[in-house]
Write a structure and sequence with these properties.
Peroxisomal Thiolase, Chain A, domain 1; about 375 residues; nine-stranded mixed sheet; globular; 17 strands; alpha+beta
Length: about 375
């Protein structure tokens, strides 16, 4: 079996960074009024700036364009050359064709195998694992894996009815900040890409992928984060295809929503439980890592994860945590790649360092952990 290395990482963040004060200037005001909840949401999530592929009520880039621009930056000569292209995203630009097909169509390259995993934050890691295994078994010599999001045009004011502005509830329960309207102060746009190979870089560093472990608890837990659907009184998801057009508007069916009751009860507990399983399976020692890269949708979860680990007698010290949430926001499936791209191009890594990545997905509770070694 071949060793697999990440040799290059690149990103594309559209337009200028948007500070907290300008969010509603870009996305619009719900019901024509400034949000009473925005300050509380931003205080909880710790995000100070983000990027939108959206200006003056119109898109500046599609999701596929963001992804293609990130991929092109992996190839200094401008000619994309890879055996396999995987593209994970939460919301492609269209239902059909697939996101990877549309991205490949924007690249100057040859006919290429593609893979478009669906889901949310873990979709890019599903693509990364497919690329990893393809190279490891010798089916491909190299691959490009991407994560991208274009969410701003789903968060502009006309998409929301503003029926809930529960400022008091947010003060009492940080998890309420993840409901419907409030996600517009957490989600942002961007793309990142990784070039994988069966050969390490001869100059500089590479990241050897030691393992990628993923699991889903959807067999036992109901849907938490959803769009293009609604939930009935029994917790069952009702598809937009089974509603009429009037219901789409009245129930904000295409807005991104989260069931905060489920989020608070399970998102950290199940993630820590899966880490326990991995520790037992692989015999890993958390103290052996020099870097911990958790995908955080909000800084609110930092202490929640610490608490969850402590309950199980585990600890990951603050000094090895690395996240760029404050600077780029929550970019869904792109976030893990954006963290890795930033630390890869920093002076923080030295050969022999071990990295642990954690990627939770609340949609229906999917989790991924990745171990990388700097070589």
């Amino acid at each position: 079996m071949q060793e697999v290395y990440i040799n290059r990482l690149a990103k594309y963040l559209p337009n200028d960074p948007i500070p907290n004060s300008d969010i509603e200037e870009v996305l619009g005001y719900i019901n024509g009024k400034p949000s009473r909840a925005k300050t509380i949401v931003l205080r909880n999530n710790g995000i100070k700036s983000r990027h939108y592929a959206f200006k003056e009520g119109k898109s500046t880039h599609s999701n596929a364009e963001l992804t293609a621009l990130a991929v092109k930056q992996l190839f200094p000569d401008g000619k994309v050359d890879t055996d396999l292209l995987t593209c994970g995203t939460t919301f492609p630009d269209q239902i059909l064709p697939s996101h990877a097909a549309m991205t490949l169509g924007l690249l100057n390259t040859h006919p290429t195998e593609i893979y478009s995993p669906s889901g949310a934050c873990c979709s890019s890691i599903q693509g990364l694992k497919h690329a990893f295994l393809s190279i490891k078994c010798g089916d491909a010599h190299n691959a490009v894996a991407t994560g991208s999001e274009k969410l701003s045009n789903m968060m502009d004011a006309p998409k929301f009815d503003g029926e809930f502005d529960g400022t008091d509830a947010i003060d009492q329960n940080g998890y309420i900040a993840f409901e419907k309207d409030f996600l517009r102060y957490m989600l942002s746009d961007g793309a990142a890409a990784a070039y994988l190979s069966d050969q390490a870089n001869t100059d500089g560093i590479s990241l050897r992928i030691d393992w990628i472990d993923m699991t889903s608890y959807s067999n036992e837990l109901e849907t938490c984060m959803y769009a293009g659907s609604d939930k009935d009184e029994h917790g069952n998801v009702v598809s937009w295809k089974d509603m009429d057009a009037r219901e789409w508007r009245a129930q904000s069916v295409f807005a991104v929503k989260q069931d905060t009751r489920l989020l608070g009860q399970f998102i950290v507990a199940k993630g820590v439980g899966f880490l326990e399983d991995i520790i037992a399976k692989r015999g890993i020692d958390l103290s052996s890592y020099q870097h911990f890269l958790p995908h955080l949708s909000s800084n609110f979860f930092r202490q929640e994860i610490h608490k969850g680990l402590a309950i199980k007698g585990l600890a990951i010290p603050d000094e090895i945590w690395f996240t760029n949430l404050e600077r780029v926001g929550n970019v869904g499936s792109a976030s893990p790649f954006l963290m890795l791209e930033e630390i890869f191009h920093s002076d923080k890594l030295k050969k022999g360092d071990k990295i642990l990545m954690m990627i939770p997905e609340s949609a229906r509770f999917i989790y991924a952990y990745i171990q990388l070694t700097v070589v």
